[in-house]
Amino acid sequence: MAKINRFEELDVWQLARQVSDDIYWLTQKGTFSKDFELKNQINWASGSIMDNIAEGFRRANRAEFILFLGYSSGSGTEVKSQLYRALDRHHVTLDCFNELYARTDRIGNMLFWLIQSLKKSPVRGLRYKVDEPEIAYLVEDFPDLAP
Q1: Is the distance from CB of 12 to CB of 57 less than 8 angstroms?
Q2: Which overall architecture, per CATH, does domain 2-145 show?
Q3: 2-4/130-132 β-pairing
Q4: How many Å apart are CA 23 and CA 30, to the nearest integer?
Q5: Is the pTM of this model over 0.90?
Q6: Could you tell me which of 111, 131, 109, 129 has the C-alpha nearest to residue 120?
Q7: Which of 3, 16, 100, 126 is most open to solvent, judged by the fewest CB atoms within 10 Å of its CB?
Q8: 14-55 per-position pLDDT tens digit
């Protein structure tokens, strides 16, 4: 496992950042740009995924980090639901929906495994260093292990 000293080093945060950026640019085009409520909601929720990872990382202890990772996971679920609304309103193609949904789902799996790893960690204060579980990135190879 790699030692993580900054939230920007977490692969899950990096993927969340990419998804948030992709969603932002998607919502600036076509009919999506005029659906202000959905546009704002999905942008807020996708940004919240990465923001809660970052905020939790700097909290004083492991329990708070786990709590914020849970918030991040919830925001990911919101994004997936909002992607359905975007698909139903013809703001995105099925291919675009599938790609963003899969990446957001992967973030959720990565968060799940990071939480599991933190729950087992003997380190209580996360301002020290955190281990990022390698298994988080193998979930797609073992879908029956995913939450």
Answers
A1: no
A2: Up-down Bundle (1.20)
A3: antiparallel
A4: 13
A5: no
A6: 131
A7: 3
A8: 999 999 999 999 999 999 999 999 999 999 999 999 999 999
